[in-house]
Structure formats: structure tokens, C-alpha cells
Structure prediction request, 314 residues.
Amino acid sequence: MSIVKVIDLLPGKVVPLQAISAEALQADEFWHRFVCRHEPVIIRGAAAGWPAVRHWAVPGYLESRCADEAVRLWRTFNPAPVLEGTAAMTRRPLKDCLREMREAPGDATFSIPGLDLPAGWAPDIGSLGMLSPRHERAPYGYPGKRLFVYRNASTEWHYHTIDETLTSQLVGRKRFSLFRPDRLTWDHVEPLVRYNYHHMPCGRQFFHADTNIVKHEGEAGPGDVIYIPPYWWHGVDPVDAELGVTLATCFRSPLRRFGSWSDPVTQELIGDVVRSNKASVPLLLAVLAASSLSRKIKGEPWWPMRKQPGAASS
Ligand SMILES: [Fe+2]
Prediction:
């Protein structure tokens, strides 16, 4: 069975995703330097002290702490959007899924995405020092915590319109790639990804040569945490073929990072709400106006990310 990888399906220039040691990152610096500027970063070792990092890779450990949770087990990579009702998904006891995933051949693909943290596993999750209680407010849309248990399952290119994400790698290694589209990049890339042209054998032929995708890439191993801001497209590929576990922690975006009239993601969001939920349009426009005003008062730009020098093509 072939293993699907998604990152290299999008052409672009590759630059290193910036990284910082968890010991060197205080909560205030994380908030102002990264969250309030929408700058992604790998925070090395931020979850290294958690019992989950020490114990969850041991075969049988997680299985012994399952109750009777039934979960959705996919036999594919994680597509976006998810298409319900296909044969790729079954609903089974978590304990049985873990056993099957460990015993399968090395090229088998499995995914249990968006799993609520099982009660028996929760004591092994610690806190994240860069996230202060003052800033860890309930997310607007995403669950506060959700797990991804997988083997060989990449996560398709996608983006979030709201809520900040701290992705803690607990078992296994993953490669992360992120890019922030301007208007031209959006127009060139979004239709191709929406209709999966990038998965075709001739997929590269559809991308314009002047498409300005700058992919910020890095690997995360057990104990590393990646901050994924909204508005950044991201794709994820496992690096190894073992059973892996990732925890996504989400918290509410600050008002001034909610959206901008100039951003293609915001413009897409407005169009989606106009088409699907007209009653919410006035509220959305009011929050967007408040977000823009908030940035103006603080003197903060919407596009703060610096151009990266020395990019290499992929
Ligand atoms: Fe995501």
C-alpha cells in the first residue's frame, strides 16, 4: 500500500521554520512576539517533561489505560475536508484500534483524528509554560484539547480562520510545513488544493511558475511544540512509520488578530458566511471592524512576518 505525503505536493521556496528553546521563552514573549504577530515557531522541549513523552511510546501502555472509548479509525491520510460516509472509516474500541495499528505492516496507514483526551491518559499531560492562564481563554470554535493518533497518516494542507494552536508532539516525529498566502498566492493555490489537483501525477503542471509560496519547514520530535497561527496554511507528514501521537491545544485568538479586510483568508471567510449564514454577517463585520481598530490603536500591522532570505526551491 502506498503512503501519501502532502508537503512536497505544493511547490515553493523552503526556509527553516524558526525554533526557540522552551527555557528561553517566557509567556509574555510568546504572546507578544509570536501570537500577536502570527509568527509560527517550534518551541523545543516545551512538553519534554510530560509523562506522556516518557511512557506513551511503550507498546501496551496506552492500551492498558483505555476504558471503553469507541473511536473513528480511518485507513487513509487526513484529507480536508473530511468526507463522511466512505468505506475508509470504521468505528471501533480504542484499545482494539491501537493493537491493530501496532501490529500492521510498516506501510499501513491509520488515523484517529480529533480524539477527545481519554480519562485514563489525561494524567500524563502537563502544562505548557509559554501559555499563561491570562491568555489561555476558551477557543471560539475548536476543542481546547484533541489528540491525533496515527501511523503514516499525513494531514492535508489546510488553514484555520480562528483560534491559536499549540501542537505538542508526544510520540514519533513529524515534518511541518507552513506558508502565509498573499492575494496572488491564494488565487493560484487555493483552487488547486480545494479540488485536489496537487494530488494528480501531473499536479505540478497546474502551478504558476511565479507563485510565491514560501514554505517554513521544520521537524518536531517527542516533547517539541509547534505554534500554528490561524491564516497560515499547513501540511504535516510523519517522518517515521511507527505509531505516533500528537496533542493539539487551542486557545482564543486576541481580538486584534481576528481578521483583516486585506487578507484573502478573511475575504474567503466573509464570502462563506454570506453564503451559509446571512444572519451572522453583521456580527462578523462588526468584529472585523473592531479587530482592525484594535490594531490601529496599538500600532500593530496585520502582516508583520519578515521576508525570509536564502530560500531554497523544492
Ligand atoms: Fe490544522
